[in-house]
Specification:
Elements: H1 2-9, H2 14-23, H3 29-62, H4 69-118, H5 121-126, H6 129-171, H7 173-220, H8 222-227, H9 231-257, H10 259-283, H11 289-330, E1 352-359, E2 368-375, E3 380-384, H12 391-398, E4 406-411, E5 414-415, H13 421-426, E6 428-431, E7 440-441, H14 442-446, H15 455-464, H16 468-473, E8 481-482, H17 491-504, E9 509-513, H18 521-534, E10 539-543, E11 555-560, E12 563-568, H19 570-576, H20 579-588
Parallel strand pairs: 3-10, 3-11, 6-9, 9-10
Antiparallel strand pairs: 1-2, 1-4, 4-5, 7-8, 11-12
Helix pairs in contact: 2-11, 3-4, 3-6, 3-11, 4-6, 6-7, 6-11, 7-9, 7-10, 7-11, 10-11, 15-17, 19-20
């Protein structure tokens, strides 16, 4: 099991992820070039400091009791100027890169969100909302941090290492050989640790996505959890998921934090060898005290970036793991492009026909086998049947959330696959059982999807949906702000708002999927009557489990195992005493 998990979480293309991360910095290439130039200047100033320090020490040592303080001050003051100037440039560099990373992360989030808007419904059926949110927020934050700090650190480290090597070689070649001896050991160690730590950072991001998805799911179902007194079971399950996430975080950081101390030990060993060899060289008269001091400072500058790079590698591994998750989302297959020369579905009458339609969400597992039906324009059609009969699947096919596997669906005689998806979906207004409202005014929620709707039109729709009296009792009427997901209004009121939204939407066809399941029976009948008047001449598809609400439908389609087994009016089907008759009697006996 452990090996299988390791294989599953191993990075697929770290280099590709790194290239794509850097591609988001492309629009800021000139700012990054400026940062690179400032890094070089800042590090050259910082690298000149140890040389000046060595000169000051040599001046002090050469005086033999009569120190020339003016010469010492000369070197010390210039060293101070170099270090202060380097620090100011470093502050500027970090300020620029923070701005760049913020803008790059904004663009990345925009790209991800735009991608989500283009993905098919099936993607959201397969993936938890919490995991998707984790990619948009947590993973991109990790990448942004890498862009703002790690890139600067890498540039600084490269300049510092190269400059330090040049200065050390110019001071003493034997001492430089001692320092450079530690480089292969550091490279071998970091390469080995990369293979160990990177899969663990990938596993950490994956487990955090799972945890976020579970939390989001449980919060949305909090009332149900409490109603069934299921809190303890949920807490136990979260404890397991949380433990897995914490373990993944610990394992990634445990191996990650060992890199810095180990590199520090290698560098300290090198420093000890420098001190030993430097003493021998000084006693032989081939090097001065000041040069040894300068060399030690340069060796520390050399080893500092090596340590820094070791720490950066941890953050870079984490960023690459996050980037792979983000880019995996960006690489998801979008909805199939409309056929070439696809036409706009215009001037819709609402004549809908399904001709030998077969469909299954998974290949080899058909839900609808051979479905044929004809719905004339302007008719109210009810679709009924037991759970799993294929009622919601029909709606998904009508809206082209999915395309049929075989057969065809036509609107006004046109195969909807020959029409653009947007024009097909604009032809329908939809009210689902799972109501959706957003944070905004009641006016905005009702007018959603209908640009430039007037107050009179919104009020008329609200009155038809029997929600107007409730709205007028609110402190600010139609300007009352609904909280996120409608937390400050009841579920029934949310459903009435969505019904009003559908009534206002100028579409020739309407889909109601259990649209009145959260309102009382008397109000439901009033809404049905109002809908019949308001939707005169429009084709309406109603999915209903409460068969008492569809007795006045022009046509009732009875589904069972993906096939229409009966169709007709309520009276006709009741007289047949077949499948529909048994369904109807089962609800009242």
């Amino acid at each position: 099991m452990a090996r299988r998990d390791s294989i599953m979480t191993r990075p697929k293309d770290s280099r590709g992820a790194l290239r794509r991360m850097l591609a988001f910095l492309g629009p800021f290439r000139w700012l990054i070039l400026l940062v690179a130039v400032l890094c070089v200047i800042s590090n050259l100033l910082s690298l000149w400091g140890p040389n000046l320090a060595g000169s000051a020490i040599n001046e002090a040592a050469a005086g033999k009791g009569q120190v020339r303080f003016d010469r010492v001050w000369y070197y010390a003051s210039r060293m101070l100027i170099c270090y202060v100037s380097s620090s100011l440039l470093t502050i500027s560099i970090h300020a620029i890169m923070m701005n760049v990373s913020k803008r790059a992360a904004r663009q990345m989030r925009q790209s991800v969100f735009d991608k989500l808007m283009r993905l098919p419904v099936g993607y959201f059926d397969r993936n938890q909302a919490g995991d998707i949110i984790s990619r948009v927020s947590y993973d991109i934050d990790v990448i942004s941090t890498c862009m703002s700090t790690d890139i600067v650190s890498i540039l600084t480290s490269v300049v510092t290492v190269i400059g330090s090597v040049i200065m050390m070689v110019s001071i003493s070649l034997p001492l430089s050989a001692v320092v450079l001896f530690s480089v292969p050991a550091a490279i071998l160690y970091t390469t080995r640790m990369r293979k160990i730590t990177q899969p663990r950072f990938v596993r950490r991001s994956k487990n955090y996505g799972i945890m976020n998805g579970f939390v989001e799911e449980m919060l949305s179902g909090q009332k149900t959890i409490q109603a069934y007194a299921y809190e303890n079971r949920v807490e136990e399950k979260f404890d397991t998921i949380n433990t897995n996430a914490a373990t993944a975080y610990y394992e990634a950081d445990y191996y990650g934090v060992t890199i810095g101390p180990t590199m520090g030990a290698i560098n300290n060993l090198t420093l000890s060898l420098i001190a030993l060899l430097g003493s021998v060289l000084y006693m032989g008269g081939s090097i001065t005290i000041g040069s040894i001091s300068s060399f030690v400072l340069y060796s520390r500058k050399f080893s500092g970036p090596i340590n820094e790079i070791a720490n950066i590698i941890n953050e870079l591994f984490s960023a690459l793991a996050a980037a792979e998750r983000v880019f995996a989302l960006l690489d998801e297959t979008e909805e199939l492009q409309d056929r070439e020369h696809a036409s706009e579905l215009m001037d819709v009458r609402g004549d809908v026909q399904l001709d030998h339609v077969a469909f299954g969400y998974d290949p080899g597992i058909p839900i609808i086998h051979d479905l044929s039906m004809r719905v004339q324009a302007g008719r109210l059609v009810a679709i009924v049947g037991p759970t799993g009969a294929g009622k919601t699947t029909i709606i998904n096919l009508l809206m082209r959330f999915y395309d049929v596997n075989s057969g065809k669906i036509t609107v006004d005689g046109m195969d909807i696959r020959d029409c653009t998806r947007q024009s097909v979906r604009r032809a329908y207004a939809m009210v689902l059982q799972d109501t959706w409202v957003f944070r905004g005014t009641i006016f905005d929620n009702i007018a959603y999807g209908r640009e430039n709707a007037t107050m009179d039109e919104v009020v008329a729709a609200a009155k038809a949906a029997h929600i107007h009296p409730f709205i007028m009792r609110l402190p600010r009427g139609y300007q009352t702000v609904i909280s996120e997901d409608g937390g400050n209004i009841s579920k029934g009121q949310k459903q009435l708002l969505t019904i009003a939204r559908a009534m206002l939407y100028d579409a020739r066809m309407l889909i109601l999927d259990e649209a009145t399941s959260n309102v009382d029976t008397s109000t439901e009948r009033e809404i049905q009557q109002a809908m019949r008047q308001l939707m005169n001449g429009k084709t309406c598809f109603v999915i209903a489990h409460r068969l008492s609400t569809i007795q006045h439908a022009d046509l009732i389609l009875v589904l069972d195992h993906g096939d229409v087994v009966e169709q007709g009016t309520h009276e006709t089907l009741m007289r047949r005493k077949g499948f529909y008759y048994r369904l109807y009697r089962s609800q009242f006996e």
